[in-house]
Amino acid sequence: MLLRAKYRVGPELKFLANLDMMHLMNRALRRGNIPYALSAGFNPHIKLSMGTVLPVGLWGEQEYFDLELSRAMDLGEFMLRMKESLPPWLEIKQCWEIGSDLPSLMKSINAAAYVFVLQAPALNLDQWHAELLARESLPVASRGKKKGLVKDLRKGIYKIELLEDDIPKKVEFWVSVGEPLNVRYDELEELLLDTGIEKKTILDVYRSGNYVMQGQDFLTPSEKVK
């Protein structure tokens, strides 16, 4: 049996590295007596596949993992056992049974949304937003493998939204991830700083969602399994 789960990583765990998150999940699966499947070979491991890596320093509202079980299990029972085994800052929100022919999370997720929480900045955010959208290029120094090169984020930013009803203010970027253009959150932060946002006004950054972009539509990995 294969299942896909959506979970929330609270800000209390934002400094966990990806390997630490894997170890945490593995311990919870063992503690909860989940009938997980193991890989073959001399060093078998739990068949757990995490989605796109959550960068150290960020927390996430909608993260995903796939898990292969050795036998069928009630999904409600799975969620209950995981709740009892995980720390309170990591919560399984939903889960679904999936088919073996479904592409992996790493192959299917090609977009993400990042939210920057801002203390009231000195500049006019509405004007800043309009000017940013009007620019034909948004160059920043690359933070990925090609450090030192200038990277144009324009083609990789699909939407920039001001969540104006919130206090403090929030700016949400919907961006491309993976190939051909991977937009990192720290490159978005650099863009903010280059366009007039002061670093001291950035109170928090988190990933609000992971998506499968098809045409102009942003589907969640959960929608892809229904």
Could you characterize the architecture of this molecule?
The structure is a single chain. The protein is an alpha+beta fold and 226 residues long. A hairpin with a 6-residue loop joins β8 and β9. Helices cover 22% and strands 33% of the residues. The radius of gyration is 19 Å and the shape is elongated. It has 5 helices and 11 strands; from the N terminus they run βαββαβαβαββββαββ. Strands 1, 2, 3, 4, 5, 8, 9, 10 and 11 form a 9-stranded mixed beta sheet that branches. Strands 6-7 form a two-stranded antiparallel sheet. The chain has 2 domains: 2-107, Alpha-Beta Plaits; 109-225, Alpha-Beta Plaits (2-Layer Sandwich).
C-alpha termini separation: 16 Å
The percent of residues in helical segments reads 10-25%
In the CATH hierarchy, the architecture of the largest domain is 2-Layer Sandwich
Mean pLDDT: 91
Largest beta-sheet details:
9 strands, mixed
CATH topology of the largest domain: Alpha-Beta Plaits
Radius of gyration: 19 Å
Q: Write the H/E string, N to C.
A: EHEEHEHEHEEEEHEE
Determine the strand fraction and express it as a percent band.
25-35%
* CATH C-level of the largest domain: Alpha Beta
Q: What is the count of helical runs? A: 5
Which structural class do you get from the secondary structure elements?
alpha+beta
Cα shape = elongated
Low-confidence segments, ≥5 residues, pLDDT <50?
none
Say how many strands there are.
11
Number of domains: 2
